[in-house]
Amino acid sequence: MDFEPFQYMRYAKRLEYADGIFMAGSGMNKPKRDVLSFREADFSLDSLCSNYGDPRNIAWLAARYGTTGEHVVMTAGSSEANFLVYAAALNAGDKVMIETPGYPQFTSLASMLNAEVVHLPRRYENGFEPDIAEFKKLLDDGIRLVVLTNLHNPTMARMPRDLMKEIVDLCAANGTLVLVDEVYVDHLKPGDDDQSAFELGDNVVVTNSLTKVYGLSGLRFGWAVGPKKLLSKMLDLIDIVDPELPTITQNLAHHALENLARLRPAARRLHEQNWPIVKEWADSRDDIEYFHPPGGITVWLRVKDITETGNLSTVARNDYGVLVVPGEYFQSPGWLRVGYKIEPTAVREGLSRLGKAIDDFKSHR
Predict the structure, then answer these.
(1) Architecture of domain 7-29+263-363
(2) SS3 (DSSP) at 224
(3) Where in the sequence of the chain do the CATH 3.40.640.10 domains occur?
(4) What pLDDT, in 10s, does the model give residues 121-166?
């Protein structure tokens, strides 16, 4: 099979174990034991877990989204959920509309299925919101799937609810499914436009997990919530690729879901603690433009007069010991994604090193 490799994921996996100040991550660190301590019973292989997930977890998620269990599918993380949505919704030759800049998994999935990609620009000058007039021009009868992220990956821009609703309605009239990846949405303050897009239309499927906001990536616990017909096809695919979900993961996830309200504030506190440090540094430099995120633990910034941010990131890592993600992985040369999930002193030191790397890189061009 020919397909476009997921180069960013390979890069991220290698970088996680590299030496230096780690400012490349976009997910929270695992919660401290005083916030979430697992019990001995959670590690038992004996549980209520069925082949399709623990019924308690399905019921919990159904209640959260205001629906029933037949609209919920459990997956091994949101990445698997996204794959299953693509595979259930698309045939070879179908068109899929994908954001640019955007999470590169979505273009790799399209290439696996021989689907044609239509790019939906999300521009800095528009606050990284899609332009609805441009969206209308791009939407045609051949587009079977529109893929959005909220918060937007990599910028962390929030999609206004009225804009999301307009897009969903346009897609419904066109017979188009809308996939909204919501792994970052809980970075927002509760009640601050953090509602799921699931309730906006019968043509919406949302994916999520316990990874990015809650720091439980090792559980590989994700889900999709959407139309019954689509989810039925996803279950058919699960029978082929993932016959039974891990019992221990389901047990641990159930305990985490019960304590989600205690886990969520940690990410917000980290953003509010470290964002002022990032902003002060960026504002102090004439060669930096950035998007002010409403939440999250990463900043999307542009280094003026530099387009080779892949090479800049290599200099930053090898010569200055700070690890960041070049925008080339998100179709955006000249940009960097810089994380700040670390301690404030490390954020300051990392940004200082990044600034020196930028100055050094410019002086040797």
Answers:
(1) Alpha-Beta Complex (3.90)
(2) strand
(3) 40-258
(4) 999 999 999 999 999 999 999 999 999 999 999 999 999 999 999 9
